[in-house]
């Protein structure tokens, strides 16, 4: 073990009491954080959990909601590629674990990601002895990688992405990060630019397979419901999708500057994180705005309020319904891109036929955002004021809107295929390492 990994291991060991305190605090608002806490430290109940599948588990780690949704696409392809596969899912967040539970079939398991101490990871690996491990997108943990390598578990990074900012941070800690990336068994990047940055960290990039999220199949029932509600709306609907902390303030300020023009559309806000639903509702109400929450709708949005010309904002305070919200909207503003947060995934919006207005900060999804803009499925704007103005113009220009919707569908369709390619690559890696 080099000195950097030894120092890192000492820090993660010392941080365990802080982790327990953080979990207790978060469990107040999100009870899932208080469930099976000992799994975080490699202790399982019952003690023989998962040992009947030792040496067989196909282990996927998807830290949070976005990664779990990408994992869901890959899981479907893996089950088709390897019938009878036994799936072991790990997560780091409550939203990831809740979403991941939907993917389980008979014989599958779901546990928390082990905190990255050597002891917890050793216990995890010895408990399950996975045939292969697949980390989704960015989740590279030093002890996890080192211990899997020592135990002969091939560990791959799939749907891999790395921003310029993250590369710079990793290079500043090169004595820790480079040996970790080098020890991965395989890396499959989303884009050529991601591959180039990953290779700068000595990662074994074996191919550029595209973004799994292009293979998303939006829920047909949700699409139909959203489209029905949109047809009933007295005004066009504009969505602020997956908004992050601070962006609601920017939105309220931009809405005020818009003045009476704001009443030309119905505004819908869907915060990215469910623990913020209540806070966002209170913030909107404190700003003098009427709020109608999805959780309170009795079968449909409150159309009577819209027809009366009142400035009543809809708040999407539900999980797992983004296809419904995208289908309900005529156009959407991309959350996370109007504050320096890196943006969110706009691929699902395109697959649902919802044109996007994206702000200046899309470094987490740089190539997807750029390709969407080039394809006419998205439009780059400098700030939220310009975004609201552009949205108003687009939704009141029927030919331009129809053209943008068609571009969305073509853009989403043109980049499919990553799921099958990744499933085949994982099976190939297992054969290479002599795994069943």
UniProtKB/TrEMBL annotation:
Compartments (UniProt record): Cell membrane
Residues annotated as signal peptide: none
Keywords for this protein: Cell membrane, Lipopolysaccharide biosynthesis, Membrane, Transferase
Alphabetized Gene3D superfamilies for the sequence: 3-Deoxy-D-manno-octulosonic-acid transferase, N-terminal domain, Glycogen Phosphorylase B
First-level EC class: transferase
Pathway connected to this protein: Bacterial outer membrane biogenesis; LPS core biosynthesis
Major place of residence: membrane
GO MF annotation list: transferase activity
Limits of the 3-deoxy-D-manno-octulosonic-acid transferase N-terminal domain: 36-216
Entry annotated with the keyword Membrane: yes
Keyword flag Lyase: no
InterPro entries: Glycos_transf_N, Glycos_transf_N_sf, Kdotransferase
EC number: 2.4.99.12
Listed transmembrane segments: none
Catalytic reaction annotation: lipid IVA (E. coli) + CMP-3-deoxy-beta-D-manno-octulosonate = alpha-Kdo-(2->6)-lipid IVA (E. coli) + CMP + H(+)
Family to which the UniProt record says this protein belongs: Belongs to the glycosyltransferase group 1 family.
PANTHER family: 3-DEOXY-D-MANNO-OCTULOSONIC ACID TRANSFERASE, MITOCHONDRIAL-RELATED, 3-DEOXY-MANNO-OCTULOSONATE CYTIDYLYLTRANSFERASE
Function: Involved in lipopolysaccharide (LPS) biosynthesis. Catalyzes the transfer of 3-deoxy-D-manno-octulosonate (Kdo) residue(s) from CMP-Kdo to lipid IV(A), the tetraacyldisaccharide-1,4'-bisphosphate precursor of lipid A.
Identification of the protein by name: 3-deoxy-D-manno-octulosonic acid transferase
Species assigned in the record: Acidovorax bellezanensis
């Amino acid at each position: 073990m080099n000195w950097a990994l030894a120092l890192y291991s000492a820090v993660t060991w010392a941080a365990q009491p802080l982790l327990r305190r953080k979990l207790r605090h978060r469990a107040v608002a999100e009870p899932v954080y208080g469930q099976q806490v000992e799994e975080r430290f490699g202790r399982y109940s019952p003690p023989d959990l998962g040992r009947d599948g030792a040496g067989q588990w196909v282990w996927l780690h998807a830290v949070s909601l976005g990664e779990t949704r990408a994992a869901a696409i890959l899981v479907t392809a893996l089950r088709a590629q390897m019938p009878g596969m036994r799936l072991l899912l790990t997560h780091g967040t409550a939203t990831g674990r809740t979403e991941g539970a939907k993917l389980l079939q008979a014989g599958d398991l779901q546990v928390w990601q082990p905190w990255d101490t050597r002891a917890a990871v050793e216990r995890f690996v010895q408990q399950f002895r996975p045939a292969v491990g697949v980390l989704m997108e960015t989740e590279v943990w030093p002890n996890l990688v080192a211990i899997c390598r020592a135990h002969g578990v091939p560990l791959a990074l799939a749907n891999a992405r790395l921003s310029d900012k993250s590369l710079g941070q990793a290079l500043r800690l090169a004595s820790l990060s480079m040996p970790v990336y080098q020890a991965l068994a395989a890396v499959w990047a989303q884009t050529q630019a991601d591959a180039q940055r990953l290779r700068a960290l000595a990662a074994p990039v074996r191919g550029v397979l595209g973004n799994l999220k292009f293979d998303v199949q939006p829920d047909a029932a949700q699409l139909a419901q959203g489209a029905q509600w949109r047809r009933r709306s007295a005004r066009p609907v504009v969505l602020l999708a997956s908004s992050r902390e601070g962006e609601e303030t920017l939105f309220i300020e931009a809405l005020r500057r818009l003045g009476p023009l704001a009443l030309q559309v119905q505004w819908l806000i869907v915060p990215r994180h469910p623990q913020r639903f209540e806070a966002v509702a209170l913030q909107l109400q404190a700003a003098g705005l009427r709020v109608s929450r999805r959780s309170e709708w009795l079968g449909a949005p409150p159309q009577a309020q819209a027809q009366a010309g009142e400035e009543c904002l809809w708040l999407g305070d539900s999980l797992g319904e983004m296809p419904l919200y995208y289908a309900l909207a005529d156009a959407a503003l991309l959350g996370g891109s109007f504050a320096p947060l890196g943006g969110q995934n706009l691929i699902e919006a395109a697959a649902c036929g919802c044109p996007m207005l994206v702000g200046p900060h899309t470094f987490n999804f740089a190539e997807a955002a750029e390709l969407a803009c080039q394809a006419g499925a998205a439009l780059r704007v400098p700030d939220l004021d310009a975004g609201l103005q552009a949205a108003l113009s687009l939704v009141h220009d029927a030919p331009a809107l129809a053209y943008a919707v068609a571009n969305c569908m073509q853009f989403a369709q043109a980049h499919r295929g990553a799921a099958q390619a990744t499933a085949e690559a994982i099976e190939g890696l297992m054969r290479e390492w002599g795994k069943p």
